[in-house]
Amino acid sequence: MRATILFCLFALFILGACSESDEEQAFDVGFEPGEDASAVPADDAGSEPADDAGSEPADDTGLEPADDTGSDPSEDANVSETEEIVLEDQGAICLGIEESLLMDFHAEHEGPPMEVGSTVEVNVMIDTCLGSCDISSQRECQLHDQGDGVYVISSSGAYTSTSPCPPDDSVCSNLVAHCGEIEVQDASFVVLHGDRHYYWEPGDNRGCVEENQDDAPTPLERSFEDEGRFCFGEFDAGGQPQAELEAGEPFPVTFSKQACLSSSCTEDMQAQCQIDIDDDEVTLSTSASYSNTTHLNESCTEDCNDFHADCGQLMFEQEGNYAVNHGEETFQLTIPGEPDCISM
């Protein structure tokens, strides 16, 4: 029995020594007490930190940043380019077509004939088919009436064109500028735009004439019959009447027509004025013609003259009232009386 107890005590001593040896070995592997012995810290796992894993950081991978890839941004096909378009005294001349209608690229730009006495709108179609990529448009136009059927247009337009831009006729619009209005007279008239001439006659259709369809420069031929202003008797330089009209005394009869003609640029002036007397009735008949070249010569003088013609002399033997006929108009002249003028 005693031997058994001694054996057990010896066994317990041996087991205690083994347990103490294992505990000392556990502390000898480099862990502090209280730490988990089953996990090894990253810094001591036998490999270098991420920065030392044999590869460079992201910025050192051998690729240059996006701005340093070797290409010029201005050469990128997706980069937009702009161009300023400026147009001076260019485009189609349009008469009698409303500005709003002309702006429609797909509309019909034609109208009925221009009648004498009608007023027609004047526009310039500066450019056509501006799309969504043509922006910041500007336009301006002025119509100058030079008199005797001569009109001068000055126009300008501008816009910014951006590219690349795919063409699309469905969104086209025209660049149009309103210039003014012209009252159609019973005579031809000319419109000057830049160095180009465009001629119209009463009865011509309303519409547009393209820039390259201008006419050859020619004088405006003017002629008229039985119209104008007649003066009976003498007048001074200021237009004041002089001596009275007396029976048995001849007095001058003159004819004039307001036309505002330049003395240096009115050519081939011709006039005929005839007086016929039948008892107490007088009939006057006139016809005249000339060529207006003011729109062909930049050196024309700026004087503004009426068309004049001398009809000769008239005399009444007896005092009384006399009917003076001219065309469809009748005027009564009294002898004796003051010199007088009348428009017929």
Description of the structure:
The structure is a single chain. By secondary structure, the protein is mainly β. The protein has two helices and 19 strands. The protein has helices spanning 2-27, 99-102; strands spanning 81-88, 92-95, 110-113, 119-130, 134-147, 150-163, 173-183, 189-193, 196-200, 205-209, 220-225, 229-232, 251-261, 266-278, 281-292, 305-314, 320-326, 329-335, 340-343. The strands form four sheets. Strands 1, 5, 6, 8 and 9 form a five-stranded mixed beta sheet that branches. A five-stranded antiparallel beta sheet has the order 3-10-2-4-7, with no helix packed on it. Strand 5 and strand 6 form a beta hairpin. The termini are far apart.
Give me the secondary-structure topology.
Layout: H1 2-27, E1 81-88, E2 92-95, H2 99-102, E3 110-113, E4 119-130, E5 134-147, E6 150-163, E7 173-183, E8 189-193, E9 196-200, E10 205-209, E11 220-225, E12 229-232, E13 251-261, E14 266-278, E15 281-292, E16 305-314, E17 320-326, E18 329-335, E19 340-343
Parallel strand pairs: 6-8, 15-17
Antiparallel strand pairs: 1-6, 2-4, 2-10, 3-10, 4-7, 5-6, 8-9, 11-15, 12-13, 12-19, 13-16, 14-15, 17-18
